[in-house]
Amino acid sequence: MADAALNDEVTIEVPTPEDWDDIYAVFSAGINIDGDPQSLEAERPLFEPARSLIVRAGGRVVGTLGANTRQIAVPGAVVPAAHGCRGAVSATVRRQGILTRLMRKHFEDARELGEPITLCWASEARIYGRFGYGLSVRRLGLNVNAREVTVPKGEEPGRIVEGSAADLRDALVKVYDQVYADRPGWSERTEQHWDFRLADTMMSRQGASALRVVVHEGDDGIDGYALWRVRGNWTANGPIGDVVVVEQVSTTPEAYRALWRFLLSVDLTRSASTWAVGVDEPLFHWVGEPRQLDAHLCDALWIRVVDVPKALAARRYAAPIDVVIEVTDDFMPENSGTWRLTGSPGAATCTPTSEPAELWLDIRAVGAAYMGGTSLAALVDIGLVKEVRHGALAEAATAFRWHKSPYAFELF
């Protein structure tokens, strides 16, 4: 891609590996944190220069937007997706249309590479709607009062085993790979992604202990694991430590229950916190007092559909659907059109048609509903969805939903 001059001083270009330090510094400043050498090196292997863009002004890097090449689980399938990351523009060059140019090129590149969707975690949600992103995945954060939560005793077979991340890594990878493709919102992990996940930098600890690892051994071997830390604390009345759950992944209900029972009963702690579980988290139906989970709802992944027919044909649908949809995309007019969408739990097609539309969707609605966690019917009142044929909305809203709520817990 050739340099694209915005004016006499500002250009957008593809970086080289040597630009990584500057990119890291610009992004860190953009999100108002001080970068550190550990995190700089831990993240370097994930940097894909060919999937990145930088902005230069007066020879200095003043803006950046990157992507990680990964697959992500969607309802009934796994699709390639541009995992947008490190988006920032220095304060001195804001309000010049730079982010708009970066986003447009980011979308075009993803489409050319055959990725029907791009996704990101939003630093500020207000930024992304104007570029056609839809809020597709939400998360629940928990701050569990372990003294008040009653965890039923079970007769699950197996045992909890502690070990180092290095010694247990193969088991962690195996368990995650067995699960991720069936949970919309979870992304594949290569060796480099696991390296970063387990890097355990001082920044990632945020005042808590070093990363700890436990696995659950069932009758057929290891079927679950938890990555966790402890934030120790004491008062005059004794210990009030907090277990910080980084992630808990299980392939069986027995492992899930045993691991949570362990995490909620660590000695010298009185609480457990985790920043992301699904909105259908089973703990609400298991513990004695769900209010003591102290849950708070927040946005997680924002989805931007850059190739409507390819994206809608790639996922599966909870119920049979046969509907003509019209999609409007003001930011990417080439993405607008009318298509006939047919789908089921086993297959889907989405083809251009000249038939009259039965349902109109703004591109933000397509992204919001794509992971199966947002009802199309909920988007009618804010003007992102309009029913043209009576009954089309109910049919489409039912089909787009999925039996597992999407969620995400891994920043990228």
UniProtKB/TrEMBL annotation:
<feature type="active site" description="Proton acceptor; via carboxylate">
    <location>
        <position position="412"/>
    </location>
</feature>
<dbReference type="Pfam" id="PF13527">
    <property type="entry name" value="Acetyltransf_9"/>
</dbReference>
<comment type="subunit">
    <text>Homohexamer; trimer of dimers.</text>
</comment>
<keyword id="KW-0808">Transferase</keyword>
<feature type="domain" description="N-acetyltransferase">
    <location>
        <begin position="10"/>
        <end position="154"/>
    </location>
</feature>
<protein>
    <submittedName>
        <fullName>GNAT family N-acetyltransferase</fullName>
    </submittedName>
</protein>
<dbReference type="Pfam" id="PF17668">
    <property type="entry name" value="Acetyltransf_17"/>
</dbReference>
<dbReference type="Pfam" id="PF13530">
    <property type="entry name" value="SCP2_2"/>
</dbReference>
<keyword id="KW-0012">Acyltransferase</keyword>
<dbReference type="InterPro" id="IPR051554">
    <property type="entry name" value="Acetyltransferase_Eis"/>
</dbReference>
<dbReference type="InterPro" id="IPR016181">
    <property type="entry name" value="Acyl_CoA_acyltransferase"/>
</dbReference>
<dbReference type="InterPro" id="IPR041380">
    <property type="entry name" value="Acetyltransf_17"/>
</dbReference>
<dbReference type="InterPro" id="IPR000182">
    <property type="entry name" value="GNAT_dom"/>
</dbReference>
<comment type="similarity">
    <text>Belongs to the acetyltransferase Eis family.</text>
</comment>
<feature type="binding site">
    <location>
        <begin position="123"/>
        <end position="124"/>
    </location>
    <ligand>
        <name>acetyl-CoA</name>
    </ligand>
</feature>
<dbReference type="InterPro" id="IPR025559">
    <property type="entry name" value="Eis_dom"/>
</dbReference>
<dbReference type="InterPro" id="IPR036527">
    <property type="entry name" value="SCP2_sterol-bd_dom_sf"/>
</dbReference>
<dbReference type="InterPro" id="IPR022902">
    <property type="entry name" value="NAcTrfase_Eis"/>
</dbReference>
<feature type="active site" description="Proton donor">
    <location>
        <position position="128"/>
    </location>
</feature>
<feature type="binding site">
    <location>
        <begin position="95"/>
        <end position="100"/>
    </location>
    <ligand>
        <name>acetyl-CoA</name>
    </ligand>
</feature>
